Amino acid sequence: MAPITVRFDHLLRISDQHGTFEHALGAEPRREHGYCTDDMARVLVVTSRQPEPDATVRALERVAVRFLDEAQAYSGGCRNRMDVNGRWTDSYALEDCWGRCLWGLGTAAAHSDTGLIRRLSVVQFERAAHARSRWPRAMAFAAVGAAELLSVDPANKAARSLLKDYVTVLPEPTGDDDWPWPEKRLTYANAILAEAMIAAGGALDDAALCQRGLDLLGWLIERDTGDGHLSPTPAGGWSAGEPRPAFDQQPIEVSSLADACARAATMDAAAIWPDTVRAAVAWFQGDNDAGMLMWDPDSGAGFDGLQRDGVNMNRGAESTLAMLSTFQQAQRFAGVPQ
Q1: Where are the domains of the chain?
Q2: Which CATH number fits domain 34-170: 2.30.30.240, 1.50.10.10, 3.40.30.10, 3.40.50.620?
């Protein structure tokens, strides 16, 4: 396996003064497709938690904070899409981009080594946190961001209020040991649902909620493992009785598992959590259902998808950020090659 190196070369190459381009054709950014808040929230997450970032990474962190600021409405909603000329092309909403915005801002408030970024992130978080979403993943991302902010500012009223409201809208446990998952089908970024329960349980001193998240995450890992390696839920989703492995597999599923397991490891000493982070790295390194490398060690680019017959070699923002995030989490655990 190639050694782990968190390289921002490709991410910087597909970024400019407005943001990071959403899509790429091969290694070239597809400028005509513009930028999105979903990706810029991810950019803020990986740039703010990078140890000792250089000047170029710090500059991209500032671009991300500015992008998220401009995406927000004063009432809390969030726009998602900006064109190549810096014009917003959609309306304010409370969908996943809103939740990811709060996730990015809470993470930066907790982890950025730049005081101005931390202060701006808190201000923007508190503005967006006035709103609530009816979408489970949006609320889950927002809850993780709130828990991050509370880790450094336990008295923050906006973050604590959001977390308490998040808990009230959680579905009741299914009572089905075979399918405890809160949805009838696994879809996308599944692990965020479990991670949010773990994060909220820790922040609110709710041991039962934390344990529910840990149990769900453990169940998800079992579903997303086959033949000794990660075999994540495909882009089309998965439900009991459907064949595995299944394709197209997306890097976001792997990074979501790594993030959730890294958080779980702070709450529980079981070996499954660091082991799964290591398995997530191995998935990018070729220990996957197709035996194919899912990143470019020379540039730090992530490939867009694992298919039955090979790899989607496009290197868009989401896949690259998923790889960078996974490698960052891996560096927290001993035994991962670096």
Answers
A1: 34-170, 180-333
A2: 1.50.10.10
Cα gap 30→24, rounded to integer Å? 5
Q: Please tell me the predicted confidence (pLDDT) of residue 336.
A: 44
Question: Could you give the residue ranges of the DSSP H alpha helices within 224-271?
Answer: 251-267
State both tokens at 134: 């009816």
Q: Is the bond into 251 cis (omega within 30 degrees of 0)?
A: no
Find the Cα–Cα–Cα–Cα dihedral 107, 167, 251, 232, rounded to 10°.
Answer: 150
Predicted pLDDT at 192:
98
Distance CA 118, CA 205 (A): 25
DSSP 238: B
CB 259 within 8 A of CB 329: yes
Given a cut of 60, whether residue 1 has pLDDT beyond it is no
Identical fold for domains 34-170 and 180-333, yes or no, is yes
Q: Where are the alpha helices (DSSP H) in the chain?
A: 9-13, 37-48, 55-71, 96-111, 115-128, 136-152, 157-168, 191-203, 207-223, 251-267, 272-284, 317-330
Tokens for 241, please give them: 């009785």
- Give the H or E element holding residue 306: strand 305-307
Mean pLDDT across 319-334: 91
Retrieve residue 81's tokens.
């899409």
Distance of CA 127 to the CA centre of its chain: 21
Distance CA 194, CA 138 (A): 13
> What amino acid occupies position 52?
E
Confidence of residue 338 (pLDDT cuts 50, 70, 90): very low
Supply 126's token pair.
């508190």
Tokens standing for 97?
């981009």
| Beta strands at 229-230 and 295-296: parallel, antiparallel or unpaired | unpaired
Q: What is the CATH architecture of 180-333?
A: Alpha/alpha barrel (1.50)
What is the structure's pLDDT at 4? 81
Integer Rg of the chain from CA: 18
pLDDT tens per residue, range 156-199: 999 999 999 999 999 999 999 999 999 999 999 999 999 999 99
